[in-house]
């Protein structure tokens, strides 16, 4: 077994409650003969090989509409037939399956909470259905006609024969029946209908898309994410041309895939990351979300997706994601706030939550601008630096200096004349090279990083004035031929760009490890909970609302 594979615990005596739990193998065999594993809730254990079984979990299983996975441990159904939860059947939910009675008992506390959430979702869905019944009936036929026309275009483009057209017509009839059952609240029969339609034709995305909707309403975030991503895979060349023009179906599938995968991340990050799509990165998400809001201008979820992508909520909330840390650029925050305002207009029932999120974005932008005015540096570079520094301790406590270097690379190229007004001054202090044991004392006004407000008191022993300093001069910002500061000649880094990034790099490189950690903590303290970087991380701040509520 290699590190990173999923294993299932069994035969434990001292921790019997963990039997049938699926966890991740984190490394090779230890000196005591045991293997290190990590549970999804963060617990780390050292377990004997006899108590580990390689688990072919649902997250590694093929994304098939007919594949059954155990709700408790994630094992794929094989020779042993899985049994479904009777409570799921009674409540007409998409049924959950278990590999055995022991696994069901061990997972019942979690599954009971799952049912409570599903019950709340059903109540909310019934209220929405009763309120929008007339609108649903009015638009349902239009959606069917639009889909039929789309299929006719596909037939004409790809030359389907009459038999294929007949099968696809039956396929679309099953979509209509399934949507009707879903609207009536019979999610179990709706899921069964969509699964049959996928078995009939697995080349089109509609069955996977609708099945994902049903599973999300049944509070099955991981299953919904699987089938939503499968719908995106099925799009292929059918809904996007070689010139990059995308249609409404493409936008709807990607929008649902984003919502479903993000919901799965919220519930179980470790499990969801096993099916992470290749486009789950900052650059692609920005591009995709921009297309989606253009194609679905009247869809509230599309504007919400665009807002969370812009404000960098994903990376702050789930550090295990491969999304690079975004710079909290105040222009992005203001654009995200505008998207939240647009969502509030389109979804009156979510108005309060949207306005709170928009207010958080505006406070973030205003704080960054205020720091820039106080310290005389462009706010874009300051925001990029603070964003990386504030998360350095949380992500990799032992690599704060490297995080500062990453901030330096991400910041805008600056020179001495780029500070606002041209008359601000700044000093890059460095501790004595012999010990490097000096926490930066009270920084003079004009320090680019903005740490004076957050520096802990009583950390000024061993401070040295340092030989690296520069003075701002009244020069044109657009002058690219400025003479480099002689103090920086012969040092690493661009001598003509000693702004925020260069200053932070020089400062942290001169500090000891403990001093680096204290410096990062001081940057974090600058941001008040709910208003700054710390407040934009998600649930930890309390003031920022949930990204995706129960579907």
UniProtKB/TrEMBL annotation:
Give start-end of the signal peptide. none
Entry keyword Zinc-finger: yes
Q: Does the keyword Protein transport apply?
A: no
Biased composition regions of type Acidic residues, renumbered to the chain: 440-490
A Pfam short name? zf-C6H2
- Spell out the molecular function terms from Gene Ontology: zinc ion binding
Tell me which UniProt keywords the record has, alphabetically.
Metal-binding, Zinc, Zinc-finger
The cross-references to InterPro entries, in alphabetical order and at most eight, read: TPR-like_helical_dom_sf (IPR011990), Zfn-C6H2 (IPR031615)
- Region called Disordered, residue ranges: 406-515, 530-551
Please name the Gene3D superfamilies in this protein's record.
6.10.140.2220, Tetratricopeptide repeat domain
Residue intervals of the C6H2-type domain = 67-122
Q: Which family does it belong to?
A: Belongs to the peptidase M24A family. Methionine aminopeptidase type 1 subfamily.
Name this protein carries in UniProt: C6H2-type domain-containing protein
């Amino acid at each position: 077994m290699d590190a990173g594979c999923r294993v299932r615990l069994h035969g434990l005596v001292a921790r019997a409650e963990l039997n049938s739990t699926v966890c991740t193998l984190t490394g090779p065999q230890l000196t005591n003969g045991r293997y290190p594993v990590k549970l999804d809730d963060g617990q780390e254990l050292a377990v004997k090989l006899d108590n580990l079984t390689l688990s072919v979990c649902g997250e590694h299983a093929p994304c098939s509409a007919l594949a059954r996975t155990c709700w408790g441990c994630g094992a794929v159904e094989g020779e042993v037939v899985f049994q479904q939860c009777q409570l799921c059947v009674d409540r007409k939910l998409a049924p959950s399956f278990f590999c055995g009675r022991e696994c069901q008992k061990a997972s019942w506390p979690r599954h009971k909470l799952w049912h409570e959430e599903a019950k709340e979702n059903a109540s909310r869905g019934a209220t929405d259905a009763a309120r929008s019944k007339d609108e649903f009936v009015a638009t349902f036929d239009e959606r069917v006609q639009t889909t039929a026309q789309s299929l006719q275009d596909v037939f004409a483009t790809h030359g389907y024969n009459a038999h294929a057209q007949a099968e696809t017509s039956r396929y679309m009839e099953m979509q209509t029946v399934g949507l009707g059952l879903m609207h009536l609240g019979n999610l179990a029969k709706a899921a069964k209908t969509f699964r049959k339609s996928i078995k009939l034709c697995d080349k089109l995305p509609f069955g996977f898309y609708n099945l994902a909707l049903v599973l999300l309403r049944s509070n099955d975030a991981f299953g919904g994410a699987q089938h939503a991503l499968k719908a995106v895979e099925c799009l292929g060349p059918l809904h996007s041309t070689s010139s990059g023009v995308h249609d409404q179906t493409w936008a709807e599938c990607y929008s649902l895939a984003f919502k479903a995968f993000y919901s799965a991340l919220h519930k179980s990050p470790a499990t969801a990351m096993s099916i992470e799509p290749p486009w789950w990165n900052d650059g692609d998400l920005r591009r995709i979300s921009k297309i989606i809001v253009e194609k679905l201008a009247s869809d509230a979820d599309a504007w919400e997706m665009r807002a969370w992508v812009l404000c960098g909520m994903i990376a702050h909330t789930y550090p295990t994601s491969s999304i690079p840390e975004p710079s909290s650029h105040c222009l992005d925050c203001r654009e995200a706030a505008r998207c939240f305002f647009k969502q509030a207009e389109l979804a009156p029932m979510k108005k309060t939550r949207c306005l709170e999120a928009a207010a958080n974005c505006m406070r973030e932008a205003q704080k960054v601008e205020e720091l820039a005015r106080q310290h005389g540096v462009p706010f874009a570079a300051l925001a990029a630096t603070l964003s990386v520094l504030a998360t350095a301790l949380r992500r990799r406590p032992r690599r704060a200096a490297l995080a500062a270097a990453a901030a330096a690379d991400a910041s805008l190229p600056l020179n001495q004349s780029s500070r606002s007004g041209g008359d601000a001054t700044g000093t890059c202090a460095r501790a004595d090279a012999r010990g490097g044991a000096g926490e930066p004392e009270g920084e003079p006004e004009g320090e680019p990083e903005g740490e004076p407000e957050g520096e802990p008191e009583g950390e000024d022993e061993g401070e040295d004035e340092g030989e690296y300093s520069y003075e701002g001069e009244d020069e044109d910002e657009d002058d690219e031929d400025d003479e480099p500061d002689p103090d920086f000649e012969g040092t690493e880094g661009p001598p003509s760009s000693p702004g925020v990034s260069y200053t932070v790099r020089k400062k942290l490189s001169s500090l000891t490890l403990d001093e680096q950690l204290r410096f990062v903590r001081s940057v974090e303290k600058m941001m008040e909970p709910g208003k700054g970087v710390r407040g934009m991380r998600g649930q930890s701040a309390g003031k920022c609302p949930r990204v995706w509520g129960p579907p």
